[in-house]
Amino acid sequence: MSAVLGHDAVRQRFIEALGLGRLHHAWLLHGASGIGKRMLAHALAADYLCERNRDNVQAGVACGECHSCRMIAAGSHPDFLLLEREWNEKTKKLNRDVNIEQVRGMLGFLSLSGAESARRVALIGEAGRMNAQAANAMLKGLEEPSAGSLMLMVCEDALAMPATVRSRCLLQFLSPLNQDDMQSVLGGMQIPGDAIAFAAQLADGQPGRVAAMADPAVAAALLAWHDLLAEPSVFDIGRAQLWISKHVQKIPHDLIVETVFAAIRPVLLRNRGDMTGMDAVLDAVRQLAVWPQELVRRTLRPAPTLLAHMLALRLALREMPLA
After folding, report:
1. pLDDT by residue (tens digit) across 3-19?
2. Of all helices (H) and strands (E), which one includes residue 176?
3. Fold adopted by 8-174
4. CA 116 to CA 18: how far, in whole Å?
5. What's the rounded Cα separation, in Å, for the pair 177 and 129?
């Protein structure tokens, strides 16, 4: 099984603890979005369940060839459970939380005898989404783990987790990827060659953020948006309006915003010594930053609201003295 780029140290720590028979029963992997936390958790589950590692002696990276590894890869291992928010048929959306019934079901699964071995793994892919009742129910499994059970939890902000849960886990912080690992990951994501450099700039060590750019149409649109904003204080309003009306429904809104920030960052850096007029710019930046969330929270129309934010930002930049 291939290495998970950028997080070799954490995986090696897991394997060493497994080999020594001192593996903690609950690992909390936390860090920024889009850096491969869940991918690493899947890899650790495979390491734990791999047939070659069952006796703990000279444990290593999952072989990728045994029956257990093949079942993990196919998503059909009977001793592996993925816990995440459930789909709501009524609302046609994912539920807001991971609820207490799901956690109880997970604890029941971990208490059973394994089908393939004495080991069972539960991966909580959205640990930060557990509601208070679910988190309280989790405590029983954390305080009295069943023999052979392993919980792997993933979240962005460990401090947002209840202290009662956090304190009973082995916390592992995952950093954004370095430049070399980013190039490797982006190269494997089938992002068009002419967009890889810009994708790396937008991702900023978090390749999952730019996964949508594997679609050539998305990549081309974002490159065009970036070119349009080459001079953010004087961009052509007509061209911007045409781009927005054509693409705002199809391009991930966070990437639209990140492209704007990439365009204005050099301008702000050039003027960092002079704060004159900066308040208006920063206010416009803040308004644009929350625009994707405001669309959902207030059910706003994306095209006119984005154009309004862009006009406010353009005006603020024009009134800021040149460095």
Report:
1. 688 899 999 999 999 99
2. none
3. Rossmann fold (3.40.50)
4. 18
5. 25
CA dist list (Å): 230 to 227, 267, 268, 316: 5, 11, 14, 16
- Domain definitions of the chain by residue range: 8-174, 215-319
Kind and range of the H or E element at 93?
A: strand 93-94
Quote the CA–CA distance of 211 and 208 in Å, as a whole number: 5
Angle at 292 between CA 288 and CA 293, to 5 degrees: 110
Cα–Cα distance, 317 to 104 (Å, whole number): 54
Helix, strand, coil percent values for the chain (each to nearest 5): 55, 10, 35
CA quadruple 93, 98, 102, 104: dihedral, nearest 10: -170
DSSP string for residues in 73-84: HHT--TTEEEE-
Write 50-56 long-range contacts (CB < 8 A, 24+): 51/117, 53/18, 54/117, 54/119, 56/18, 56/19, 56/20, 56/21
Phi, psi (deg, nearest 5) at residue 177:
-75, 150
Dist CA 275 CA 273 (whole Å): 6
Q: Pull the structure tokens for residue 321.
A: 């003295």
State the DSSP H helix or E strand holding residue 27, giving kind and residue range, or none if neither. strand 26-31
Q: At 302, list the tokens.
A: 């994306």
Residues counted in the chain: 323
Other Cβ atoms within 10 Å of 58 Cβ, number: 9
Cα separation of 260 and 232, whole Å?
A: 8
Task: Express each pLDDT in 169-221 by its tens digit.
Answer: 999 999 999 988 998 898 889 899 999 999 999 999 999 999 999 999 999 99
CA atoms within 13 A on the CB side of 16: 6
